[in-house]
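Risk mitigation, structural track. In case the binding assays with S-adenosyl-L-homocysteine fail to produce interpretable data, a predicted complex structure has been prepared as a fallback.
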Amino acid sequence: MDKLIEEMERYAREYDIPIMQKEGLVFFQKLIVENHIKTILEIGSAIGYSAIQLARLDPDMHIVTIERDDERYAKAVENIERSGLTDQIELIHGDALEIDIDGNFDCIFIDAAKAQYIRFFEKYETLLKEDGIIVSDNLSFHGYVEHPERKMSRSLRGLVRKIKNYIVYLENHEKYDTLFINEGDGLAISRKKKTNMVE
Ligand code: SAH
Ligand code: MG
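Fallback model:
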């Protein structure tokens, strides 16, 4: 397993695949254990790295993960097979905004196209269990979000603006409370607000 993990990390470096950073991953793994999370829906599998790193935490963990890119999907199939975790990880090839998924998850992990985070959130929060959490990755986007003075191409600036919009969206969400965590590339953890039924 360690050899496979190392190989995936090397492959990601070589082909510029934005897999989760170590500190972010360690934080996320701890969060999952502490919150007794057993089912995860991941949007954006890339080569299967985070799915494998989360599934290996617990033989009872079940992960459904979606990837739209053909090459990355093929690599993820290969890596998941090599990991021996095929019973725990269901990999779906498709665009998360176009396909429909069934189920009820303890955790929804949003880690796909940064410009579409609000759309992923709105589409998939309906599949979250009442006391589940939505985790969003890369809200710092390599530090660009906190450092708008840095030189950026027009498209990067547009992306950073979209990430900021998402942060504001989470901050003002009427149904969710969000905690922003400065680990890895910036994570957000959103939980449903408890509605007070007694007037
Ligand atoms: N979670 C992975 C990294 C994901 S990188 C890890 O940490 O190991 C983001 C991935 O999301 C890319 O591979 C990209 O192809 C995929 N992606 C982007 N938009 C998507 C969409 N709408 N549906 C499915 N996958 C998407
Ligand atoms: Mg990420």
